[in-house]
């Protein structure tokens, strides 16, 4: 296996302070950070990031086994560094492997090939494209690039600082994150499930108007799934239903546990394939707006965590519910970070653009 690498040197006042902030951020997102004087190593899912600081100089190094993973690490390091006070204007230019690329290595252009309504509020769309094998991976999610209705697609290109340069103006695509529901690399197909909202954002609006042949772009994949365990606790609302369905299908036949899914009513339930030893429970909001009821948190808190077998807990929910479940698993249940993963799929009153 060939190791690819790229480096960028940034001149910053008090570089060590910036390194400390970066380490705190990545640790908060459950990456393993190994810090030593002047040199810090970050173990990402896709490779390694290295930070070397010397007074007013910070050297970033990205290492991975392919250009797509390398680009992802460059992006994570550069993006989060430039979000820090005092670093936004610092000049950052990568050198090394992949820096001459003129297209994003993980970008694929795909076309709508099939549309199917699973429930009144969930639409499945299959896209056809080329070279989709990379998306048939344990990683859960992709970024969907949606051209404005009636506009030809214009895609982002690599930036010298590792952050993609996005088109501006009326042709700029919207960016949304979705779970990869299924991939058939041999057939050249990737399938996503879309929740159809009453007040749709760009993703739900695209799904509602989609026609055969419509073009979108995809970037990724990324996002961790579940770790191997004997007993699982899965929890989520409508937005997590595609992810929970994917997880359940990939569990070992002898897996045990509980999956709790909140939807509006019985018409939104799906016949999900799952191991016989795992119980699937549905909660109904009965017309209450998503993210406004405590029932999902209460249901999860009422489930005892076994002490006699390996456990993994997973949740994909609204932001406030995510915070409550993560705190419950960490503080009340004492689950270590490698035994649970809670993700905020959305935040009530905020768009994904506002969170970007």
Largest sheet, in brief, is: 6 strands, antiparallel
Tell me what portion of residues adopts beta-strand conformation: 35-45%
Distance between the termini: 34 Å
Q: How many strand segments? A: 17
CATH-level-4 superfamily name of the largest domain: Nucleotide-binding domain of ferredoxin-NADP reductase (FNR) module
Order of helices and strands: EHEEEEHEEEEEEHEEHEEHEHEH
Written account of the structure:
With 356 residues, the protein is an alpha+beta fold. The chain folds into three domains: 4-96, 2-Layer Sandwich (TATA-Binding Protein); 108-222, Elongation Factor Tu (Ef-tu), domain 3 (Beta Barrel); 231-355, Rossmann fold (3-Layer(aba) Sandwich), CATH 3.40.50. Helices cover 21% and strands 35% of the residues. The chain is built from seven helices and 17 strands. It has a six-stranded antiparallel β-sheet with strand order 2-3-4-5-1-6, covered by helices on one side. A six-stranded antiparallel barrel has the order 7-8-11-10-9-12. Strands 15-14-13-16-17 form a five-stranded parallel β-sheet, with helices on both faces. Helix 5 packs parallel to helix 6. The longest helix is centred in the first third of the chain and has 16 residues, at 67-82. The mean pLDDT is 93.
């Amino acid at each position: 296996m060939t190791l690819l690498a790229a480096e960028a040197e940034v001149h910053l006042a008090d570089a060590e302070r910036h390194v400390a902030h970066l380490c705190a951020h990545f640790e908060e997102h459950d990456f393993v950070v190994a810090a030593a004087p002047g040199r810090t190593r970050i173990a990402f899912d896709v490779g390694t990031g290295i930070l070397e600081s010397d007074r007013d100089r910070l050297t970033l190094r990205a290492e991975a086994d392919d250009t797509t993973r390398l680009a992802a690490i460059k992006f994570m390091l550069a993006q989060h560094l430039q979000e820090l006070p005092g670093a936004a204007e610092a000049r950052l230019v990568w050198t090394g492997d992949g820096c001459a690329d003129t297209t994003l290595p993980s970008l694929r252009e795909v076309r709508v090939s099939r549309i199917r309504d699973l429930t009144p509020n969930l639409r499945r769309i299959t896209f056809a494209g080329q070279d989709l094998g990379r998306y048939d991976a344990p990683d859960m999610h992709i970024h969907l690039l949606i051209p404005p209705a009636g506009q030809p697609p214009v895609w982002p290109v690599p930036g010298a600082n590792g952050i993609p340069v996005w088109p501006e103006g009326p042709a700029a695509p919207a960016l949304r994150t979705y779970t990869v529901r299924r991939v058939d690399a041999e057939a050249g197909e990737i399938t996503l499930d879309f929740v159809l909202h009453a007040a749709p954002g760009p993703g739900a609006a695209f799904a509602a108007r989609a026609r055969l042949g419509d073009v979108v772009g995809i970037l990724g994949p990324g996002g961790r799934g579940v770790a191997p365990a004997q007993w699982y606790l899965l929890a989520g609302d409508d937005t997590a239903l595609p992810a929970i369905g994917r997880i359940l299908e990939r569990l070992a036949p002898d897996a045990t546990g509980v999956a709790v899914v909140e939807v509006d009513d019985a018409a939104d339930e799906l016949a999900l394939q799952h191991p016989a030893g795992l119980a699937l429970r549905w909660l109904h909001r009965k017309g209450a707006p998503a993210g406004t009821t405590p029932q999902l948190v209460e249901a999860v808190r009422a489930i005892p965590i076994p002490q006699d077998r390996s456990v993994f807990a997973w949740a994909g929910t609204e932001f406030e519910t995510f915070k409550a479940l993560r705190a419950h698993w960490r503080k009340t249940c004492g689950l270590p970070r490698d035994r649970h993963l809670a993700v905020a799929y959305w935040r009530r009153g905020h768009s994904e653009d506002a969170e970007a």
